[in-house]
Amino acid sequence: MSEEKNPQVVMETSMGTVKIELFKDKAPISVRNFLSYVKEAYYDDTIFHRVIKSFMIQGGGLDENMQPKKTKFAIKNEATNGLKNVRGTLAMARTSVVDSATSQFFINVVDNAFLDHSGKTPDRFGYAVFGQVVEGMDIVDAIREVKTGNKAGHQDVPVETVFIKSIKLAE
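RESULT FIELD:
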């Protein structure tokens, strides 16, 4: 029997299409959580609300008016799964609380080793990688280059809104 393939999703953004493979074997909780939001079309019309050219692009929780969408319960942090925060990977965004990730994710645009698991304390626990861009890294790079400013008390917000139109399971 062949090993079941990792699920893939297609993210339609206002700047183009990005295809992402999800590592359900290494990050089952994060992937199950992410796909539950995908199935409910939760990400439709959310935005990339934080873009830092030399770091990452973050989205999946706010609408174009910078209003947070209602999320489900927080999940366990899987940063101990051995996956690294390298360019092109997706990781769960969280607060300073280790197990606080809900719907928001970020795409690393450079290698961010300082986000990897390096200890048990909250500041060293790390951010759980759960996926990898397999097509459309040029779109991610285009998003990272947009002009940013301050908006509604947030920093590094794209001046021209970058929408996540939808994220759907790939056929």
